[in-house]
Every structure is written in C-alpha cells, then in structure tokens.
Design goal:
- The complex is a heterodimer.
- By secondary structure, chain A is mostly helical.
- Chain A has one domain: MetI-like (MetI-like fold, Orthogonal Bundle).
- Helix content of chain A is 75%, strand content 3%.
- In chain A, strands 1-2 form a two-stranded antiparallel ribbon.
- In chain A, strand 1 and strand 2 form a beta hairpin.
- Chain B contains 17 helices and 13 strands.
- In chain B, the strands form three sheets. In chain B, strands 1, 2, 3, 6, 11, 12 and 13 form a seven-stranded mixed sheet that branches. In chain B, strands 8-9-7-10 form a four-stranded mixed sheet, with helices on both faces. Chain B has a two-stranded antiparallel ribbon with strand order 4-5.
- In chain B, helix 8 crosses helix 9, helix 8 packs across helix 16 and helix 9 crosses helix 17.
- Classes of the chains: A mainly alpha, B alpha/beta.
- Chains A and B meet through helix 11 of A and helix 3, helix 10, helix 16 and helix 17 of B.
Chain lengths: 290, 427
C-alpha cells in the first residue's frame, strides 16, 4: 500500500465515521440494549430487576396469547398486502387507461394515503358503527357486528388498512406504467394481442420489480402494524385483532414489564429482518436476470 | 454532595438576605410557577381556568399553569409513567385516575400527604374515595371527583307496563321480554352495557362478579378465590347476548356507544356512569324526562348489586419544588366551593358528601341524594399497585368469554394462570 492509498483510506474512514456513529448510537446500541433487557425480568417502577436467562422466551413459547398475536399478525400481513397489491395494480391500470381526470383521480387516491392511520381508524370506527354506521345502513338494517364479532373484526380491520394504504401501491405502479413506451403496446397491437394478453404479457411483467419493492415496503409496515387496530378495537374482541406489536405495547408501555415486553419486541424484530432479507434476495435475483 | 448543598441552602439564603439587608421582603422568593396536569373537563363550561385564577388571586406571586393531558386514560397513564420514571420534574400537581394511586405510591412518585393532613380533614369525603387514595395506610392523594356504576332505565316504558326498577338481573330479563313483546319495535334493545375489550369491560365484569359473590383478588392476594362463581358470572353475561336481552354489538360497546343507543331511545336499560344523566336531560335529548337511575341489579340468590366506583384524585409529585403550594392548590380544587363549581359547570360528581344535599346543586340535579346513597354502596376495583397489569392481562380473557369463543371456566383458569405468572415477579 502506498502512502497515498493509506491517506485515502484514512480520509474515507473519517468521512464514514459520522454515519457509523449515528447508526451505532441510534440503532445498534438500543438494539443490543433491548436484547439484553429481554433476558431479564425487569419492572423498574417496582424495583424488579434480575437476570432471567431465556425465561421470557420460554414463557412466550407456551403463551397462547403470544401465538394468537403471531397468527393475527400473519393473517393481517398476508391479507392486507395481497389485497393492496391486487387492488393497487387494478387502480393503476384503470387510471392509466383513463383519458380524462387522471390528476383528480390521483389526488383523491393520495388523500387516503395522506391521512394519518389514527384518523383513518377513527373514520372507520364511525363507518362500522353498529346502528348509525354508513356500512350497516347501506346493507339495509342487516346490523353486522363489525368490530365486536371475533370472526368479522380482523377482516374489518384489514379492509380499513387496505383502504388507507392501497394508494401507495397504486401510485408506484402508475409511475411505472407511465414509463412504458407507447410503441411497445403498438407493436403488441400489430401482432394481434388482445387486451388480456397485453395485460398479462406486457403490463404485469414490466410492473414486476416495482411491485416487489412495493410489496417489501408494505409487508414490513404490515408486520409492524399498530395504530389501526389499537384505535379501532384495542386488540379485541377476544384478542382476535391483537398483533405482536400491540401485545408488545401492552407489556412495555401499559404495564412497564420491560424485560417481557422486550422479548416480544425481539421476536418482531427477528421476524421483520427475516422477511426483509428474503425480499432483498428476491430483488437481487431479479436484478441479475433483468 | 447534593444533600450537603441542600443542607447549606438555608444558610446561603440567610446570608443573601442579610447581605441585601432589607431590600424589601417580598422578593426573597420571586415568582413561582406551579404546573397542574389534568384532563380537559367536558361539559357546558370548563370551570377550571376560573378556579385556577382564584387560587392565584389568593396566593400573590404564584402562577398556575394548567396543562392538558392526552385524551384517553391509557395515554395519560403512559405520559405519567414515562415522565415520572424518567425523573422529569415537569409538574407539581397531577390529576390521577384512582386506579393508579397505589401503583404511583409504590413507585415512590407521590408525596405522602399523611403528615400534612389535619385530623378529620378527609371525613367529609366518601369513604371509598378515601380508600382508593390510600395505600399502605398512608394517604397519597385528595379525592377530586367521584364515579359509580348505575343502572339507567326508561321510566316511561316501565310505567307503561306497571313495572318497578328491577332488583335482580333475572327480574330485569323478565321485564325486557315483557316490554319488547308489547312494544314490537325491532330496534328496541333490552340491556346495553360495555363489553368491548378495554378497561370498561373489566368494570362491567367486576360488577357481575360482585353480584355473584366472586372476586378477582382475595384479601390474602389469592387470584380468583371463587373460580366457579366467577365463571358463572361470565357465563351469565354471555347468556345476556345469546338470548338477545343485550344486543350482539355489546362486544364492541364502550361507554359512549352504549350511552348513544340508550340516549336515542333504542334501549330500555343501560349500565353507565353518572355523567350520562346530564346528557339524557339535555335540550335535544330523545329521552329527556324519561330516564331515571337505580342501583345495579343483584343476582337472585346472590348478593345485592353494587356499582364499581371510580373517579379522579389529585396527587402531589414527590419531585415538586413547591410541595406546600401544590398541596394548597389540591386543597383549593377539592374544596366545597370548587367541587360545587365543577359539578355545576361540568357533569362530574363531587367527592364531598355534603354537596349531595346542596340546594344549589339539587335545583339542577334533583336526584343527587339518590346518587349519594348509590355511591356509598359502591365498591372499588381491586386496590393494588398492579391493577393495570391485572386489567390488561384479564381483558382478552373476559372478552373471549363474552364473545363466546372460550368457555367461561377456561377464561378464568387461563387468566388466573397468566396473572399468577406476572404477579409472582413483582410481589
């Protein structure tokens, strides 16, 4: 190594130092601290603090409420992301084929996306109101117990989430559609491709990468979903809408069981990291073939 | 080091005063700002700003800053624990939900008021309000407003069928059947209460437990000392929904949802707090003049019904720099005059018993003496520092039993086991 290379390297380290420092202080340090906390029984306000090893994790392994929250998180994530992607693509294609009022349609879409989750949840609380809610009124006096029925509550929460976040997928897809050159479609027309063939052979494959990216973002968000169910149902009825993050919140902030709550958080963290890793691999594989 | 400094402070102050030598005596303390944390009061007119101004007028050089807490009880609790555990001395006087007092006292966040109280100072308050401000035989807060669970009923409907307010749930179910058979109104529900998975559900279940001779915590700390009776009470609540006496949406109902259904004239009976009465008697109310309240029913062959008590207390932060002034403000706000103003301006019930016979208050609220009798018969939720742990552990179990997805006996067993595991760590 020449002296110049060594100097470059030193300068590089100096340039990267602020980022490393910021990540270290804001991400790595709290992360390790939570991991450490999860190995303790710790409730500071009652002076409880002792090392517990894997006791918290052992309890979680046999904890029905934890498994139910895990299942709810999985169903919520799969359901909401699948619907968001399907509807998002449909809406993007619909706007793209529309001749007039594109701008208006986009603004209306973004309105839902711009709404804070808590506000959207409050809105749906009224829509789902058993007697005065618009949904039940439109269904004509078939008063469905949207937020109080253990079978219906989770789909109702998923629907509210889809309404709010589908525009994110739609706008991303729409942007990609705009970038597809018109002559690709013209060529297809010349070759005699019908509408359906155009959609499945051209539009969807070209959307592939952006859809994968949108799905990644949405999945990570859905796995950590909290506000929509917290406001709409508080996790009820019978805990059927309690996700892992709501469970962690109850342990951490409502009852200050820092050790136990951290153990739940660590599980959420591992879950999110595993999913992110899988998606990133997919994305990279896609980059090679594309 | 800081202790030494604190000990030296009076000496330093004295030296300073001597040095300044008679430069006016009023300036040795300077202006003082007290911070009071409270939840905004709903009602025709918020009487609080005016009450804070009168305190300032009586204490020259003192400014009181009233700071609003977040809206929901859960958020308020979270605000307090984060700030108090973080040792931030941002406030002097705190409005506290009565269920938090033992927890905050155990955590060492509240000033022990016992040595500051005059003999007999708490005698005019409801004994159960004082009990919920007491932990370990010390008093940690002054009772500010009072709540008790009531049974509201439609006087017009009961009179039409020649019925008296029910003393037992069995009687009430019978009355619901008779009135609904006669009215033939498919939109008329029987008995509405709070069954959503939240603190309100725990209150409703506790009331059902008490009527059935069951408890969550025994005196010796045993969890569910009467498990069969507890399961039976949960089964009974489920049967109210299954039989249609209570609507299916009870499993999603909080205070306001149930209060609105009854207030729109769509229910015969309602379990709620005293605040609802003012709203039913409001100008645009559909049930104006057709509502009265009674004690919650008991169970046939069980115990008489008792409403759960609740309410807010005022506690002084142990980190306050002006504990004497903060206590003076608490005394001012819980005084008879202040509680009268609050009862007149907002729909909150006083903790001082004499006000329930106050002519000025009775003019607007003729049922005050009745409310006093029911408040005296009310029972507090378990007074324990671990109440929130208890409630948040049991909520999904109770909800599962009421929604019919888990047999009542399993809900009691599972809830008891979980609670035992968590309590074992703290006790």
């Amino acid at each position: 190594m020449t002296g110049r290379e060594a100097a470059d390297r030193r300068r590089g380290l100096v340039y990267i130092a602020p980022t490393v420092l910021a990540l270290g202080v804001l991400t790595v340090y709290p992360g390790i601290w939570v991991l450490w906390l999860s190995l303790q029984r710790r409730i500071p306000i009652f002076d409880v603090s002792r090392f517990a090893g894997f006791e918290n994790y052992a309890f979680l392994a046999g904890d029905a409420r934890f498994w139910s929250a895990g299942k709810t998180t999985a169903v919520f994530t799969l359901g909401s992301v699948a619907l968001e992607v399907a509807l998002g693509v449909a809406v993007a294609v619909a706007i793209n084929t529309q001749r007039r009022g594109r701008r208006l349609a986009l603004s209306l879409l973004l309105l839902a996306w711009a709404m804070p989750a808590v506000v959207a949840a409050k809105l749906f609380e009224w829509l789902y109101h058993p007697s005065a809610g618009l949904v039940n009124v439109l269904l004509g006096r078939h008063s469905i117990n949207w937020l109080g029925d253990p079978v219906v509550a989770l789909p109702a929460v998923i629907f509210a989430d889809v309404w709010r976040t589908m525009p994110f997928v739609a706008v991303l897809c729409y942007a990609r559609l705009l970038a597809i050159p018109a002559d690709v479609y013209e060529a297809a027309q010349v070759d005699g491709a019908g509408r359906f063939a155009t959609l499945t052979r051209i539009t969807l494959p070209l959307l592939g990468r952006i859809l994968l990216l949108a799905t990644l973002f949405r999945t990570l968000d859905a796995l950590r979903a909290f506000d929509i169910m917290f406001v709409l149902t508080g996790g009820g009825p019978a805990g059927t809408t309690e996700t892992l993050t709501v469970y962690a919140y109850r342990a951490l902030f409502q009852t200050l069981q820092l050790g136990f709550g951290s153990a739940v958080s660590v599980v959420v963290f591992v879950l999110v990291m595993a999913v992110a890793w899988a998606y990133l691999r997919l994305l990279r594989a896609g980059a090679v073939t594309a | 080091m800081s202790a030494a400094l604190r000990r030296a402070r009076p000496v330093l102050a004295l030296a300073l005063v001597l040095a300044l030598g008679g430069c006016g005596t009023g300036q040795d303390r300077g202006p003082v700002t007290l911070v009071f944390k409270y939840a905004r009061i709903l009602g025709n007119a918020d009487p609080l700003p005016e009450l804070l101004r009168t305190f300032e007028a009586a204490h020259p050089g003192v400014r009181v800053k009233g700071e609003a807490l977040p809206w929901t009880s859960d958020d308020q609790h979270q605000f307090y624990i984060i700030n108090l555990e973080g040792r931030s001395p941002g406030f002097d006087l705190m409005m506290l939900d009565c269920i938090w007092v033992p927890e905050f006292a155990r955590a060492g966040w509240l000033l022990d008021l016992t040595p500051h109280l005059q003999p007999g100072e708490l005698a005019p308050f409801f004994p159960s309000a004082v009990a919920s401000a007491t932990y370990g035989e010390r008093v940690w807060a002054l009772p500010w407003n009072f709540n008790v669970g009531l049974l509201y009923y439609r006087t017009d409907l009961l009179a039409k069928y020649g019925l008296r307010p029910p003393e037992t749930y069995e009687e009430m179910i019978d009355q619901v059947r008779r009135i609904r058979a006669g009215e033939r109104d498919p939109r008329l529900d029987g008995y509405v209460w709070q069954g959503k998975q939240y603190e309100g559900l725990v209150v409703n279940v506790l009331e059902a437990f008490w009527a059935n001779g069951a408890r969550v915590l025994g005196e010796d700390g045993a969890i569910f000392p009467e498990p069969e009776r507890a399961a039976d009470a949960l089964r009974f609540l489920r049967s109210l929904i299954e039989s249609g006496v209570s609507p299916a949406w009870t499993t999603a109902a909080d205070e306001e949802l149930s209060r609105r259904a009854f207030g729109d004239g769509h229910a015969i009976f309602l379990r709620n707090w005293p605040y609802a009465m003012d709203l039913f008697e409001g100008k645009d109310s559909a049930v104006r003049g057709k509502v009265a309240f009674a004690a919650l029913p008991g169970r046939a062959r069980g115990e008489p019904g008792a409403g759960s008590t609740g309410g807010a207390h005022l506690g002084v932060s142990r980190r306050s720099r002006h504990p004497d002034l903060a206590l003076a403000l608490a005394r001012h706000l819980t005084s008879e005059a202040a509680q009268r103003a609050i009862a007149l301006g907002a729909a909150l019930s006083p903790t001082r018993q004499s006000l329930y016979r106050d002519p000025e208050l009775m003019r607007g609220h003729p049922a005050m003496p009745r409310l006093q009798a029911l408040a005296l018969a009310g029972r507090p939720r378990p007074v324990t520092p671990y109440y929130l742990l208890l409630s948040s552990t049991l909520q999904p179990e109770f909800s599962a039993a009421i929604a019919g997805v888990k047999p009542a006996a399993h809900a009691v067993a599972d809830g008891g086991a979980r609670l035992g595991y968590f309590l074992e760590a703290v006790r």
